[in-house]
Design a protein that fits this description.
This protein is of the alpha+beta class and 240 residues long. It contains 5 helices and 10 strands, in the order ααβββαβββαββββα.
Length: 240
């Protein structure tokens, strides 16, 4: 059995730290949103969410590519679907082109949004609703906003016993890779970051692509607090 190296453990810790920082942002946002209670007007709610999330989208080299609040049905009076969601500046996007400032998500201008009419069944909403815990969905290709490979991280927002929605953020896989790859490259063997179902997220083995299914292998190091593990890259496993 291959035993994890100290660098492998450092890669797992760095991954956990990166996502912990994102969840700290979400925690602070949900506290502010919960204070609005059930009486907030849509315009007031949107203004609050915009003020909370936009600074994170404008940080130097931001990890987040979008962020906001998705209200539970009927929390916003008379609306089954209400997204207070902003996209950060985009270098290139098939839907929006190049943007230099944050933009509000306009569902009316998007195609293929029918599935959002029952968004409560989607993983990023249904799991925080059922577990009352934070959750990471993905990675997956976001066809609604970015047309990019992303994670969606979400956290329930509750007032008393009622969940009034979820606060969340879209995290670019490419930006996560940029942040973590120097440490992964420092290992003496190629490593990969895989998700809960063993899909590769990051690999330092050039022949291993994101999305590839990695075989189970001894020596994996779990990333605390998030559903990822750092493993010996699949191509390297075949040579062990």
């Amino acid at each position: 059995m291959t035993h994890p190296s100290s660098t492998t453990e450092q890669c797992a810790a760095a991954t956990s730290d990166l996502f912990d920082g994102i969840f700290r942002d979400l925690e602070s946002w949900r506290e502010e949103i919960a204070r609005t209670g059930p009486t907030a007007r849509p315009s007031e709610l949107d203004a609050l969410v915009e003020a909370l999330v936009v600074p994170s989208l404008l940080r130097p080299n931001p990890i987040l590519i979008g962020a906001g609040f998705i209200a539970a049905p009927e929390f916003v009076h008379g609306r089954d679907v209400h997204f207070s969601w902003w996209l950060g500046p985009l270098e290139s996007n098939p839907l929006l082109g190049i943007t230099t400032v944050p933009t509000r998500l306009d569902l009316g201008a998007r195609v293929y949004t029918e599935y959002l009419r029952d968004f409560r069944a989607l993983e990023w909403y249904s799991i925080p609703q059922s577990t009352h815990q934070r959750h990471v969905t993905g990675p997956y290709v976001d066809h609604l906003c970015t047309c990019d490979y992303i994670f969606t991280v979400t956290m329930p927002v509750r007032v008393g016993d009622d969940m009034i929605g979820v606060v969340g953020a879209d995290v670019s896989v490419r930006r996560v890779e940029t942040a973590l790859i120097p440490l992964f490259l420092a290992a003496d063997q190629p490593l990969a970051l895989v998700n809960a179902i063993d899909r590769v997220v990051i690999s330092t083995e050039p022949t291993v692509q994101a999305g590839q299914l990695a075989p189970r292998h001894g020596g994996a190091v779990a990333c605390s607090g998030v559903p990822f593990r750092v493993i010996l890259s699949p191509a390297s496993q075949s040579r062990v």
